[in-house]
TrEMBL record:
Biased composition (Low complexity): 1-11
Superkingdom assignment: Eukaryota
UniProt protein name: GRF-type domain-containing protein
InterPro entries: Znf_GRF
Organism this protein belongs to: Hordeum vulgare subsp. vulgare (Domesticated barley)
Molecular function per GO: zinc ion binding
Keyword Metal-binding: yes
Positions of the UniProt region annotated as Disordered: 1-25
Length: 177
């Protein structure tokens, strides 16, 4: 276990606004809760609480676990201790690159979910338009039958205007999709 050191470089992904630290959430879920570990004599803070074990995702200490007062955010002490030894420069850079890639993919996933929602809404609107046009055509076709019974030719003239327009709209929608 590493020796105690000041809290520089020990911020978790929860800390925001510090140079060299990622404000993104942890790129991987915690495999165990912060208090689920066998505490030794040096895992207790000054206010006599078992230290919570967190994972740093800073650029200087990615993936490195540390202990911190479990009540530090609500009036506890500022006790801090590294739980793991530092990693090699190669592993450090590899973890930073992987963290950044995971966060980039999360942002892209969120963006694509928004695009997908917009497209689904557009499809629904177009389906409603097609349904309305089909109803108009059905009504006009029924009106055309009545024309054979001697009604005025106004419905037929409307049919000659709207049918090509509806076909044009349907083809345009199909080509746009």
């Amino acid at each position: 276990m590493a020796s105690s050191s000041p809290s520089t470089g020990a911020h978790s992904s929860r800390d925001v606004g510090h140079a060299g630290y990622s404000s993104n959430p942890s790129p991987v879920p915690y495999r165990e809760q912060p208090l689920v570990y066998e505490a030794t004599g040096d895992c207790w803070c000054a206010c006599k609480h078992k230290g919570a074990r967190w994972i740093s995702w800073s650029n200087n200490n990615p993936g490195r676990r540390y202990l911190k007062c479990q009540r530090s955010r609500v009036g506890g002490c500022d006790w801090f201790k590294w739980f793991d030894e530092p990693t090699t420069p190669f592993l450090r850079q590899l973890l930073v690159d992987l963290r950044n890639t995971v966060n980039k993919l999360r942002r892209e996933n969120t963006r694509l979910r928004g695009v997908n929602a917009d497209l689904e809404q557009g499809i629904e609107e177009r389906n409603n338009q097609i349904h309305a046009l089909r109803n108009v055509l059905r009504n006009m076709a029924e009106g055309g039958v009545q024309n054979k019974k001697g009604h005025t030719g106004q419905r037929t003239r409307m049919l000659l205007i709207i049918v090509p327009l509806a076909i044009f709209l349907i083809i345009s929608i199909k080509l746009a999709g």
